[in-house]
Write a structure and sequence with these properties.
- Strands 1-2-3-4-5 form a five-stranded mixed β-sheet, sandwiched between helices.
- The chain is of the alpha+beta class and about 140 residues long.
- The protein has a single domain, classed as Aminopeptidase, CATH 3.40.630.30.
- The chain is globular, with a radius of gyration of 16 Å.
- About 35% of the residues lie in helices and about 20% in strands.
- Helix 1 runs antiparallel to helix 2.
Length: about 140
């Protein structure tokens, strides 16, 4: 499997003390996300997701998804986090080649991630990624107010 000099494969059970609060911060920042930190934990423990860490400053949780219609595989970067004091603005571009190679090693046809941050969307578009879909949601509970 492709290796990056910074990332190491992590054991969610050993890294949970700092990964869980980071996931909680992502969920607070993006309240429309529906998973719980425990869902990430469970998927890593059962082997359907992979945790990769850089010290206690960065982590990514990735999973392989198979399209039910084409049967092509996608490496989905499900969760990505960088400690605020380590954010450089260049992390995405720095690490994308690693994930591209990882996807190829796993015999994936696609590499995918999603974000609600417009700046990341512009970055992805500028470095050769194509927009597949945008999802907007309206909470119908707001209609009764």
């Amino acid at each position: 499997m492709t290796e990056h000099p910074d990332f190491i494969y992590g054991d969610i059970r050993l890294e949970w003390d700092w990964v869980k609060p980071a996931i909680e911060s992502i969920l607070q920042e993006q309240p429309l996300l529906t998973y719980r930190p425990e869902d990430v934990y469970a998927n890593c423990v059962n082997g359907s997701a992979i945790l990769m860490v850089v010290e206690k400053a960065r982590f990514v949780v990735a999973e392989t998804i198979i399209d039910p219609f084409t049967h092509k595989k996608t490496l989905n970067i499900w969760v990505a986090w960088v400690a605020p004091e380590h954010r450089t603005g260049g992390d995405t571009e720095t690490y994308l080649p690693f994930f591209e190679n990882m996807a190829l090693d796993l015999d994936c046809t696609y590499l995918e991630c999603s974000t609600n941050k417009e700046s990341l969307g512009r970055l992805y578009s500028s470095i050769g990624w194509a927009l597949k879909t945008q999802v907007y949601v309206r909470d119908l509970r707001d209609l009764g107010e």
